[in-house]
Design goal:
Order of helices and strands: EHEEHEEEEHHEHEEEEEEEEE
Distance between the termini: 63 Å
Strand content: 35-45%
Number of helices: 5
CATH topology of the largest domain: Alpha-Beta Plaits
Low-confidence stretches: none
CATH architecture of the largest domain: 2-Layer Sandwich
Bound molecules: iron/sulfur cluster
Number of strands: 17
CATH class of the largest domain: Alpha Beta
Radius of gyration: 23 Å
Number of domains: 2
Shape: elongated
């Protein structure tokens, strides 16, 4: 059974996969799996882009998003226009989907699109026409950074063991596994206002509401980053030799946060 493995940390946001999907499917008919994709409005593979943080502590993150080719697919339970191939790919039959706009509601992940011109519900086929020839899906073939991979489940056992599913929601046992999905960060800078200098090597201790702790030190620019955090309320303690400790309590993390310049006094 085939799976997709997507390592978000390797994605550089080139949009090549999204364009490759268009190149493969727009104006091309791959029956019995797909009629042509329209050149606008459909993203059978969509690169989701999100900006985290506030200037100057900002990070852009990209997440390729497609049909999850679920094992216990909610769409298949709703309509027999969807079916699962023995290799795990879920297909929306272009003949049975004709004229059925309601099928776009069958997917909790929002990956089914309506083709107004053809009056047809459509979605990612996993490039089943290429897979039948022993080739990878076009998006996977295009990806130069190996962020997108496709293959036999057993060959990816190591990656799958540490992978996550896209959220929300998690339904239907997806066959698209994600590594390094974007999480939140807390960042800032520590400085000495009397000397007008940054403080390198200050010791930072971050504590969550459940008592989990992370430690770090400021770098050569006085900067610190705590990455891959979950939404919560945090307390940050900053210590540096010769300075009074600083405690920042009640840091509410809902989106990635630059808490700015933190002064320390001797
Ligand atoms: S082709 Fe690869 S690197 Fe480029 S946007 Fe897609 S997943 Fe990211
Ligand atoms: S992601 Fe949506 S369309 Fe794809 S298999 Fe799952 S429920 Fe069906």
């Amino acid at each position: 059974m085939k799976v997709f493995v997507i390592d978000v940390a390797k994605c550089n946001g080139c949009y090549g996969c999204q364009i490759a999907c268009k190149d493969e499917h727009v104006d091309n008919e791959w029956m019995p799996y797909a009629k042509p994709q329209p050149d606008t409005g459909h993203f059978w593979l969509k690169l989701k882009e999100k900006t985290h943080g506030q200037v100057p502590k900002v990070r852009l993150e990209y997440t390729p998003y497609l049909c999850m080719h679920c094992d216990d697919a909610p769409c298949i339970k709703k309509s027999d226009a969807f079916y699962k191939r023995p290799d795990g790919l879920v297909i929306l039959d272009p003949v049975k989907a004709q004229g059925k706009k309601e099928l776009i509601e069958a997917c909790p992940y929002g990956t089914v699109y309506w083709n107004e011109e053809l009056q047809l519900a459509q979605k990612c086929t996993g490039c089943a026409h290429l897979v039948d020839e022993g080739k990878p899906p076009r998006c996977v073939e295009f990806c130069a950074t190996d962020a997108l991979r496709f293959g036999e489940e057993e060959d990816f056992a190591e990656e799958i063991a540490k992978a996550e599913f896209i959220q929300p929601p998690v339904e239907g046992r997806p066959r698209v596994y994600y590594l390094n999905l974007p999480k939140l960060f807390i960042a800032g800078e520590v400085w000495d206002p009397e000397e007008d200098e940054i403080i390198e090597g200050a010791k930072l201790t971050l504590t969550s509401s459940t008592g989990m702790t992370w430690e770090g030190t400021t770098d050569g620019f006085g900067d610190f980053w705590f990455r891959r955090l979950c939404p919560d309320t945090y307390c940050l303690k900053i210590e540096a030799e010769g300075y009074q400790p600083v405690i920042k309590a009640g840091i509410k993390l809902e989106e990635s946060l630059n808490i700015g310049d933190i002064p320390m006094h001797k």
